[in-house]
Protein: MerR family transcriptional regulator
Amino acid sequence: MALKIGELARRTGLTVRALHHYDAIGLLTPSARSDAGYRLYNDADVARLHQIQALRSFGLPLADVGTYLSRPDLSLQSVVAQQIDMLTREIEQAGALRERLRRLHGVLTQGQEPNLADWLTTLESMSMYDKYFTPEELQQLPLYTNAAIAVPEWKALVASVRALMDRGATPQDPDAQVLARQWMAKSVHDTGANPILFARLNTLHEHNQEVREQSGVTSDILQFIIDASHEGKLAIYRRYLDDDEYAFVRANIGKRAQEWPPLIARVRVAIDEGHAPDSPQGQELARQWFELFRSFAGDNPATQAKIREALTREPGLTDPGWIDAAMLEWVRQAMMALRAA
Structure:
């Protein structure tokens, strides 16, 4: 039985607008149209929609869903199996939270006086992390395993940034540059220098207002730090570029900056899974990498060469540490394979 778009939206909990968007970007095109021109979705369309929503629930960006759906090894059966695994982890994580609360209850029952407000806040944060990280990943996340120290340090750093902003400082201010470097260094430390965990932590922060409220990392504070970090890099690039090149980089360096962390994480996953640079996965990641590079470097090969030289010579451009020499070499080989294809 074919479903009209309104019925499909009602029965899946999606909006008609979302289904229209999926159709517009070629992600889910209805198999038929009625005589009156209405979109009609059949069983195969609904199965594909299930895969789309499942991949989105795994944290995959919408822009990458189509690529994954085209993989020959991605069957509906495998997607459902992954969903079962995810729900199993959530059940285990809920059990872990129950155990933490049981221990807290035992302490209170014995008449001891912990700092209850701080403890409960930490427990709440930890339970949120449980929804985004596996138990194994949590053990690799210093922000989680060392929360008693890490959380107060972050609050102090956020307070310093807020005080600087309240004084009217700009991202070009030397004090802003210092705080930006501290912020980036602490981000690396508290994610174990793991770009996968960093990207996942960004997703957690983006989708949970409670986390933003607890951390105090508001959108204006985060943007201030991002801008200050860009200013530090622009000061380095200025030594390599002429006036026109520098103006282009300055105008574009921040436009797609938010796309770098998840891309770096995907490259790390590909490397960890043993994909060769000249594999289809490697070439696709190289294409995405070069597209992001072009977004701020432009299309002039001479300018691109200058920027590559700066990236090779200047540690301050590749900090804060999620991109190591091995990753850069893997990407370089993937780029060569892409150009040769």
Summary: The mean pLDDT is 84.
